[in-house]
Amino acid sequence: METRSPREDGQPSPARVRPGGPAPLLLQTVHEHRPGLGGISVLKTRGTVDASNARLFSEALAEHVAHAGQAGEHPLLDLSEAYLACADAVRSLDRATGALARTGRALSVVQPRPHVREALTSAGLPGIRVHATLASALDALTSRAPAREPARERAGGPAYAPARPAPGDPGW
């Protein structure tokens, strides 16, 4: 007997279609204080970022980054429970982190699912730095000294790192 993924009419099998459509987008900000690092602000994202809510996501992320900057906190984005469903979702990240990239900084993105990590890596967004774990993101923040940034610029390298695995994230 032959098994097919799509039905005869070309549609996916009912088992592969999520009842009710994509998961709703939920955003939650968590503030913490870490010894040796100071304040961190983590925007936890859950659900699907698609064309219908990409603008909302972009605005919420930009607001999160701006508020963290005003409060003297390190902003992080947790994508461990998020799906990026289209190119609009990736562009929403680029819009929200553009100001960081222009100032030579990047937003730490933590624990993206494999397809999200691949999309971010392929897009090469200059305002994003991908980390496998929260611990590796915090280690990277702790190890960044203000005196190191100008040294990278003088060496001819970019002042920011495009979306790619961060050092210390093995297996990415």
Which helices and strands, and how do they pair?
Layout: E1 26-34, E2 38-49, H1 54-71, E3 74-84, H2 87-102, E4 107-110, H3 114-123, E5 128-131, H4 134-143, H5 148-154
Parallel strand pairs: 2-3, 3-4, 4-5
Antiparallel strand pairs: 1-2
Helix pairs in contact: 1-2
The proportion of strand residues reads 15-25%
SSE string? EEHEHEHEHH
> In terms of per-residue confidence, which ranges show pLDDT below 50 for 5 or more consecutive residues?
1-7, 11-17, 145-162
Q: State the distance separating the first and last CA atoms.
A: 39 Å
The global form is globular
Task: Return Rg in Å.
Answer: 18 Å
Strand order in space, largest sheet: 1-2-3-4-5
Chain-averaged pLDDT: 79
Q: What class would the helix/strand composition place it in? A: alpha/beta
Number of strands: 5
Largest pleated sheet: 5 strands, mixed
Number of helices: 5
In short:
The chain has 172 residues and is of the alpha/beta class.
Overview of the molecule:
- The protein is 35% helix and 23% strand.
- The chain is an alpha/beta fold.
- Strand 4, helix 3 (114-123) and strand 5 form a beta-alpha-beta unit.
- Helix 1 packs parallel to helix 2.
- The termini are far apart.
- The model is unreliable at 1-7, 11-17 and 145-162 (pLDDT under 50).
